[in-house]
Amino acid sequence: MKLKDKVAIITGASRGLGKAIAIKFAQEGAYIAICSRTDNIFTVADLLKVSCSKCHAGKLNVSNYLEVKEFVEDVYKRFGKIDILVNNAAILGERTNIVDYPIDIWEDVINVNLNGVFYFTHEVLKYMIPQGSGSIIMVSSSVGRKGRARWGAYAVSKFGVEGLVQVLADELKDTGIKVNSVNPGPLATRMRKQAYPNEDQSKLKKPEDILDIFIYLASDESAGITGMQFDAQDFKLSEIQK
After folding, report:
1. CA proximity to 68, closest of 156, 154, 9
2. What are the tens digits of pLDDT across the range 155-207?
3. What one-character DSSP code corresponds to residue 187?
4. Can you point out the beta strands (E) in the chain?
5. DSSP assignment letter at 139
6. Residue 196 appears among annotated catalytic residues
7. Has domain 7-240 been given CATH number 3.40.50.720?
8. Domain limits of the chain?
9. Cα gap 63→35, rounded to integer Å
10. Where does residue 53 rank: exposed (0-12), middle (13-18), buried (19+ CB within 10 A)?
11. Active-site position among 119, 154, 196, 216
């Protein structure tokens, strides 16, 4: 129960990695607030209630600032604090060259993957800073650390997220709030299938296989760890504890 009585917001939790994180956090004793722009978020909430004594779900678009603000305010009113934010919600967009990239899809990807992260972080900090504690975990990508052809807006948005981590870690270094990024690596998810439609996903790890890093960063074990980049599939808690 490493997260006992902590309040965690997880975005994009209707499926894949976000759903797996929410389930694991609940098993570790956290109170959970999840959101997605699909109705499946309420199905996940019903699943969570088996192991979570307090769970809240909201259907919203993370790229809509007013919807984000209302959701975060509601979470605080319900739980009285916010300890953890996992910025997981993201969309892939197009796998094509920049010169061919559709303008409307570019804007949508940047709005969800970068502006949405900013909106949630902006609002959550209003509560974490007075508390003097908190953990913000940004879900990143390898293409947000080294750009590759035909990853377009997705890669650029993740570069932006990595930059935001660095800015925040410096701004918040004396507040007790830690901000880190996690690259999940190749996972058997719907987004991965969209990016690599011909890949054999049976050879990939599942989201449930890489959750140790998220528990570590969300828990008090990682006190003082901030501004860092982690690769989930290379993380070994036993090495950290030596």
Report:
1. 9
2. 999 999 999 999 999 999 999 999 999 999 999 999 999 999 999 999 999 99
3. B
4. 7-11, 31-36, 55-59, 84-87, 134-139, 177-183, 229-231
5. E
6. no
7. yes
8. 7-240
9. 12
10. exposed
11. 154
